[in-house]
Amino acid sequence: MIRVTRSAVIDAPIERVWAVLRDFNSHTAWHPVVAESEIEGGEPSDQIGCVRRFTLRDGNRIREQLLALSDREHISTYCILDASVPLRRYVATLQLKRVTDGERTFWHWQSTFDAPPGRERELADMVGTGVYEGGFEGLRAYLRRSRHAPDRAAAAGRAVAAGEAMPAQGVVVSAFGGPEVLRLQSLPARPPGPGEVRIRQTAVGVNYIDVYVRAGLYRLIEPPAALGMEAAGVVVDVGDGVAHLLPGDRVAYACTPPGAYVGARTMPADQVVVLPDDVDEETAAALMLKGMTAAYLLHRTHRVRAGETVLVHAAAGGVGLFLCQWAKALGAKVIGTVSTDEKARRARANGCELPLVGRDYRFAPAVKAATNGRGADVIYDGLGRAGMEENLEALALCGHWVSYGQASGPLPPIGPEALAAKSLTLSRPVVFHYTAERAALNEIAQQTFEALRAGVIRVEVRHRYPLAAAAEAHRDLEARRTTGPLVLLP
């Protein structure tokens, strides 16, 4: 029995590498020796037992079966069923491990097989050098292309034939409930109609509003239906009447209705913006909804002025970090609430002058103490019900309570007398109202991109999950195990 092993370090986070390799039919996109491939019977490409039939560029044909797949251990095992190359009883396993710095991946690839007498060295070299080492280099090149500047012609060239649906998978809510109701299934993307665009998605943003929708708190879908408000990718084709987008354009969006947890999507083109060359797709998927939310909250709902005191709840969260960074740049004094010491350190590093640590929603006395009894001029509140009484107490006279989320539950009715006690203002804004008109969408998106370019806001994606692991992402988000943006990788 011949054993071949090869290892390499890939300059990309393990989640990004695994999102590609867990797809049993992805090798046509990145492996230089694979010419064409398909999954037999139209089965999902991550289903145990599925069979891929492919042709190598030298003309050889191979059928392989997926034997095991572990998203937790990042392991894939497969075997050859039959091939024109005499690799007998071939079984291979690839495993990924996170390099300690968190931004690189160790990839180990090994196989065992028998070969005809006299051809052992030839076939071992073919597997080790041509397949494994060639695969390492091919994936490195693929990741560089997809992260920075995908070739317009190549992206358009992968488009399906006109009038055909594009095979894709998506995560749907099977019934309203907890993370366990999320299911991965086939969701082909239909051809675009007039005013529509079809996008091959490369990164999907996860937001707390997705939790509200999944639970049925926001009835924006009727199960079974896909989740998600935010994603980025590459335009495949456009329908009649679409002039601002072309096949191959790198684009992003953040809008209703939900439906972003998919590998490909057809949607209205007027809610899609072209990405600047200096913003990659993963950054865009982490930025669009949360970044534009910060932009309208700080510049439209309440225009923050230098010298104001701003209280940001969930200051180490996706929106919270952007609010802290941007408010500090505007000259405000930023106070934030967080649930752990680690999150406090992260909030402080991103512009929060005074992080308040606690899980009991008791923050008003500390805010008053930090402002000589005056209170906060504005509170940006994504908490909802649990912080209501403390918010009223923590606000200064004529203060502004901006309630843009309800992670702890919806606010109960608030009578005018509660606001009149300090001449307070309460706003309940929704980002999609601010971006409903295309001109306003472009203005807020460009303002967000400019803030990123100027270093006013920074995107650091620490939490990446394969699309199939969306339920795990939701569990982590709801359990407060995350800081900053979460991204799903189709």
Q: Can you describe what's shown?
A:
The chain is an alpha+beta fold and 490 residues long. It folds into 3 domains: 2-147, START domain (Alpha-D-Glucose-1,6-Bisphosphate, Chain A, domain 4, 2-Layer Sandwich), CATH 3.30.530; 165-289 and 438-445 and 464-489, Medium-chain alcohol dehydrogenases, catalytic domain (Quinone Oxidoreductase, Chain A, domain 1), CATH 3.90.180.10; 306-428, Rossmann fold. It has 14 helices and 23 strands. Strands 1-7-6-5-4-3-2 form a 7-stranded antiparallel beta sheet. Helix 14 links the parallel strand 22 (463-466) and strand 23. Helix 6 crosses helix 7, helix 6 crosses helix 13 (438-453) and helix 9 packs parallel to helix 10. The longest helix has 28 residues, at 120-147. The radius of gyration is 25 Å and the shape is elongated.
Write the layout of secondary structure elements.
Layout: E1 2-10, H1 14-21, H2 27-30, E2 34-39, E3 51-56, E4 61-70, E5 75-83, E6 88-98, E7 105-114, H3 120-147, H4 152-157, E8 169-173, E9 182-186, E10 196-206, H5 208-215, E11 225-226, E12 230-238, E13 250-254, E14 264-268, E15 272-274, H6 281-301, E16 309-312, H7 318-329, E17 333-338, H8 341-349, E18 354-357, H9 364-370, E19 376-381, H10 388-394, E20 395-403, H11 416-420, E21 425-427, H12 431-434, H13 438-453, E22 463-466, H14 470-478, E23 486-489
Parallel strand pairs: 16-17, 16-19, 17-18, 19-20, 20-21, 22-23
Antiparallel strand pairs: 1-7, 2-3, 3-4, 4-5, 5-6, 6-7, 8-9, 8-11, 10-12, 10-14, 10-23, 12-13, 13-15
Helix pairs in contact: 6-7, 6-13, 9-10
